[in-house]
Amino acid sequence: MTDQTDLQTDFIGDDVVPHGADPVEKKRVLIVDDDEDFAASLAGLLELEGYQAIIAHDPLSAQRALALHQPAVALVDVRLGVGNGVELVRAFRQQSPDLVCLMVTAYASVETAVEALQAGAYDYLCKPFYSADLLATLERCFERTRLMEEKRLVAERLGQMQRIEAMGQLTGGIAHDFNNILAVLLGNLRWLQEHVRTEPQLAQMVDDALDAVKAGTDLTTRLLNFGRQEGGDTVRVDLGKALPDLMRVLGRTLDDKVSLSLELADDLHEVEVHPTQLETSLLNLALNARDAMPDGGKLRFEACNFVVRPDDARVASGLLPGQYVVISVIDTGHGMPVAVRRRALEPLFSTKPAGKGSGLGLPMVDGFVRQSGGRLGISSKPDEGTRINLYLPRAP
């Protein structure tokens, strides 16, 4: 059964929530100096201060170390035994534009400083320097790196919001036209329904067709709501009753090779959502899980009450403190690497073959959860399956 500790690691939107995760990776610094003793002494000092130091003594090995270890900061001596430190900084900036370079020199001059800054260096230190000055400069470098990463994430989120808005306008237009077609079908089918009552077989066929039209109408409602803040009419939903009903539908829909189970916590709170969107969202997640288990596997649905406190890292992702119900969809499929997981909520992004996926499934589920006042969380690793958590606010 899901509890607070089972929900300690989530990827919500663009943010990783590392509760209970592995220790934070050390800050990596590349030291490029032809003086082996100085480089080793400097690396020892940085290691004592909690940094991870990588040493290189010439430009070629330095560029290899940059590609292999991807440090955030490089300390580069101006005068190297082979090559020139300033030229190496230029090469570094071409190889990794986000790398923060610090020049280290025993021959400080205005010309040297200007040349280093023009090459792309962030700052420079003069030998000999105090360890406090070095550490303070490094902290500024890593703070700059953090701010650049935050700026990149904000730009990505803005681009994603713009794509969602554009997709909302496009799908809204398509849904409007499709609704007109459905209106004609609905009118004709209701007329037929009145005239075939004496023929049970035909009446059943018309009833099935009317059910299909209703399903099409529900789909257009989802398309119209996609990319908008309105979620339609919401009602209080008792998940203790709604989820078992959904399991019966899924039991007829999923492959026989998929083992389906449901676990509900006692005293499960009600949620206030659009019931059709909730059902179609969970159906979408179930079908995604089935596709991730081509050889069969286990699919488990869980629901439990959950409290988000003000100091919870999920708050940074927009999840307000308060009481929630978490619906978890857990599969034993192939899982997602980090690069795929980070793009999973992007509209039109799909790893499925052409014609097998639209790239709108998860973004539409995410849109439904956000419209309901919650957030969607993803926890997944390659070959370890995937857990999708829907955080839905408790009904007032």
Q: Topology, pairings included?
A:
Elements: E1 9-12, E2 15-18, E3 27-32, H1 36-48, E4 51-56, H2 59-69, E5 73-77, H3 85-95, E6 100-105, H4 110-119, E7 123-126, H5 131-195, H6 200-225, E8 235-237, H7 239-253, E9 258-264, E10 271-273, H8 275-291, E11 297-308, E12 322-331, H9 338-343, H10 361-371, E13 375-380, E14 386-393
Parallel strand pairs: 3-4, 3-5, 5-6, 6-7, 9-11
Antiparallel strand pairs: 1-2, 1-13, 8-10, 11-12, 12-14, 13-14
Keywords: ATP-binding, Kinase, Nucleotide-binding, Phosphoprotein, Transferase, Two-component regulatory system
Domain Histidine kinase: 173-396
Modified residues (4-aspartylphosphate): 77
